[in-house]
Amino acid sequence: MDKYIKLQSNQSEFSSTANLCDFTIPAGGVYDLRDSFVNCVFKIDVTEVETAAGNGVYNMDLEWITTDSEKPKFFNSALVRDCRMETANQGVLESIRRVDILSQAKQTYEKSWGEAKAESYMAADQVMDPINIQKYGIYRQYNKEGVNKSTDNNNVPVMIRLGDLMDVANTPEYDTSKTGQTRIHFRLNLDKIQSVQRMLNATIAPPAVKSFKKVDTVGAMNEITMGKSDGTETTLVRNLEEVPYYVGMKCLLTAVGASTPPAAAPAAVNDAAVVIKSIVWDKKNNTQGQGGTYTLTFENSWGALIAAQSYADITLKPQAPVASSSAKLVLAQLVLKTVTNPQGLDRIDYHTYSTEQGFGNAQENFNDVFVVEPECDNMIMTFQDGVDNLVSKNNQLESYQISVDNVPQTDRLVTANSPLDYDRKFTTLTRLGQGLHNLTGNAGNTASNSWGAAYSDAKFKSTIIACPLPTSDSVKQLAVNLNASAGGVGAYAIFKSLPRQLAL
What we know:
Layout: E1 3-8, E2 20-25, E3 30-47, E4 60-64, E5 80-87, E6 91-96, H1 99-110, H2 113-118, E7 140-141, E8 151-152, E9 157-161, E10 174-175, H3 176-179, E11 182-188, E12 193-197, E13 211-212, E14 219-221, E15 223-225, E16 250-259, E17 269-282, E18 293-298, E19 303-305, E20 309-317, E21 324-338, E22 347-363, E23 365-372, E24 378-383, E25 397-404, E26 407-408, E27 414-415, H4 419-431, H5 451-454, E28 464-468, E29 476-484, E30 489-503
Antiparallel strand pairs: 1-21, 2-11, 3-9, 3-10, 3-21, 4-12, 5-6, 5-11, 7-8, 13-20, 14-19, 15-18, 16-17, 16-20, 17-18, 22-30, 23-29, 24-28, 24-30, 25-26, 25-27, 25-29
């Protein structure tokens, strides 16, 4: 059986300014770093608007901080800004500056939408689900049927694979008896993330799930059944994925009072706060796939009726808004998979990166020359001209050409998003390990409430220049020539791939 050990970070307090995280791996063990990862445990605290109606459980998530209403989908590895791994016997193995930009760009192209969706159960932030058009964060445990109240999940880990940050970690055997004590250092992007409430009323579709049947039972009102407001028809639910409700959700209820003369109509109910106590989905009526009745019961009554009175036009706003919320990293752990029967690798071949950053001053014809290490065999150029400083974006880029020591690496200018451009990306990413699986180059917009729109926002269309490079015996001159429309080239980063070998 696989065995895992957990190592606590050397730091115990984290904040937007206290953002350093270190782990020390003692000498003596053999670990499969491919299946090893860092657990970042986040806690999201909520301040409610009111508590008289009961305490609610809110659908909370994390999002990347930008000044735009659109928010980029960030991969878990983007939580790490810089990383470093060094050993007592072998010295520094990797030290990558702005690994968040690099890993975000690489995974955007390396993972298809389906692959990214399959990993949503452990994603720090969520994109709208394409099937049920819903979006639930991993920071709560949701019960969509029964009487057990949903709970705040303050122990859920955000998993960051070591291999998504450092290629040396993509090894089945890492023998610390040979490398000696190993130190892993991270600088985290805790100042770049914030808490956010998902699935507020305006995002819920279709409208039928917010409409409930007329009620005329004498006494206190704390139960409603989904259907037409006049009570003539019941809305049948075929699958719980069709409805947004869960036990413990605080909602806002509205109802119109009616009566039969001479009785007076009850007062209207306007956005009364109610907390769902139980959900009954009557599957006995689910014949021939038609669905079953769906009934909500609340912790407290929202109104009362006497004879000849009724409530109609009952609507429910799922998910009452919170007053405020905050996210905090409370714990960081390094989870290492031990190797029971090591085969005894004598070396580890991997790639690391050196980083060079600059600013193009909005040049439409950008030309610059960079000094590149002799062993550099690939380059990736990213553009941080968006407000998020994460997504590599340059919609102005029209064409480019890369030269090494005055030798062009293509026989013509490469047009952006052309077959030759994709060939350069495919070749480079394949040489670096994962290949090209997403031609759209869009990781998604988490603020979008539509699956299609989430991946069509031009703000998050990733633009990178990738090119394989020849190795040499001495430093080489890397010439970059870019042609762009108005806006040109702003901030950029060049990541130079450097093959390394760790002898064991």
